[in-house]
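SAMPLE LOG
Freezer: B-3
Tube label: C17
Construct: single chain, 221 aa
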Amino acid sequence: MNRKTWIGASLIAGLAGSACAQEDMRRFKLTPLSEMTPAQRAYADAVMAGPVAATGSAAVVPGASTIGSPFNVYLRSPVLAERLRQLGEQIRFKSSLPERLKEFAILVTARHWTAQYEWYAHHRLALKAGLSPAVADELAQGRRPAGMQEDETIIYNFSHELHNQHAVSDVTFKAAVEKFGEQGVVDLIAVNGYYVLVSMILNVDRTPIPGGAKPPLPLLK
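STRUCTURE (predicted):
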């Protein structure tokens, strides 16, 4: 074996070892489809046939033998899992908010909770929907992003106040209603609230980043 081949093999082995080490940290072990109860299998099949599978999600890969988190965690409570599937699909795929803004609100929530997998999963979707990489990068560092568009500023202010103050000011509420309407405001509250639950699930599970990759969010003081 020449030196380049040896180095390449060593790097691959190191990455594989890192991925295995992270996977071992997962508290809710992945359940193979073949070992699921009928209720669990019905839920897993519904998730795999639903809109999440079309997003390129690492957690829901058509034809895979398992589903990843948060869905894998939800399996432990199949009736709740099915209710959450319907709720999550409504909030995520049928929101009145534009995709860019909805994904931005999810990133604000992920940053607040330092939900590493949630950020990993939605960062690419936010950029694909048109969010500026610079805005996402500053948010990841725990800073108020400069250069936000007007509608992004409203989303950020509302979501940031809601997470940190557990309420929103009259000025922030008025700006959101004027821009998105009352339905939009309710949908914004819902996406923040639902992804708090997702953050909790992922953080308790210690869901690893695929491939043993480094967690994308720095820890904030």
